[in-house]
């Protein structure tokens, strides 16, 4: 059995993410991956059992990274505006530092991997966000609403702005670049719409 080479393992992982983003899950294979890495066809199997194992291990590893970003300095006991601001900061920083990962996760969300992917979805983060929402609702800072409605209002604007920024254009092809002014003006509007 061949030994593990951490640099090669990282190359395999990064190329897998690139290929999945570029060709979709349907177009991704271990043979294409080996060719893109300029390694033998058997090398990815040193690190992963098969294609499914590779996809899920990469996803779970990246979810742990995402969870670390999202929960950094976030306290679910914080007042609404302060806690939401920290979430926007953390999510925006993650998007800036790991720009390809949202495209990778979008591929998984719309695939047969969705159920397995979501079953391991950042338990610490989900717990913290649930507590945060319960706290701000109990304190009367926002109206009681289904979590999905809250999430759509609280973060939908942010994720659309991030997408426009990454694409470099808004609807209709108008050039767009995120600025702090745009980001925090949008945040203020979201806070205003959610506050009681």
Automatic annotation (TrEMBL):
Entry superkingdom: Bacteria
DNA-binding region coordinates: 29-48
Keywords annotated in UniProt: DNA-binding
Domain HTH tetR-type: 6-66
InterPro entries in UniProt: Homeodomain-like_sf, HTH-type_Tx_Regulator, HTH_TetR
Coiled-coil annotated spans: none
Protein name from the UniProt record: AcrR family transcriptional regulator
Organism for this UniProt entry: Mucilaginibacter lappiensis
Upper lineage: Bacteria, Pseudomonadati, Bacteroidota, Sphingobacteriia, Sphingobacteriales
């Amino acid at each position: 059995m061949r030994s593990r080479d951490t640099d090669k393992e990282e190359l395999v992982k990064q190329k897998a993410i690139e290929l999945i983003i570029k060709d979709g899950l349907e177009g991704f294979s271990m043979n294409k991956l080996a060719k893109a890495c300029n390694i033998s066809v058997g090398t990815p199997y040193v690190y992963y059992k098969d294609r499914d194992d590779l996809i899920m291990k990469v996803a779970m590893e990246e979810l742990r990274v995402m969870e670390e970003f999202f929960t950094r300095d976030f306290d679910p006991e914080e007042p609404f505006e302060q806690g939401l601001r920290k979430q926007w900061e953390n999510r925006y920083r993650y998007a800036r530092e790991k720009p390809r990962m949202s495209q990778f996760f979008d591929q998984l969300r719309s695939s047969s991997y969705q159920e397995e992917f979501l079953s391991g979805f950042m338990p610490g983060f989900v717990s913290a966000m649930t507590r945060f929402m319960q706290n701000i609702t109990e304190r009367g800072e926002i109206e009681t609403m289904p979590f999905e409605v809250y999430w759509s209002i609280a973060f939908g604007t942010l994720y659309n702005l991030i997408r426009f920024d990454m694409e470099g254009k808004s609807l209709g092809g108008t050039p767009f670049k995120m600025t702090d002014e745009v980001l925090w003006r949008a945040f203020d509007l979201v806070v205003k719409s959610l506050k009681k």
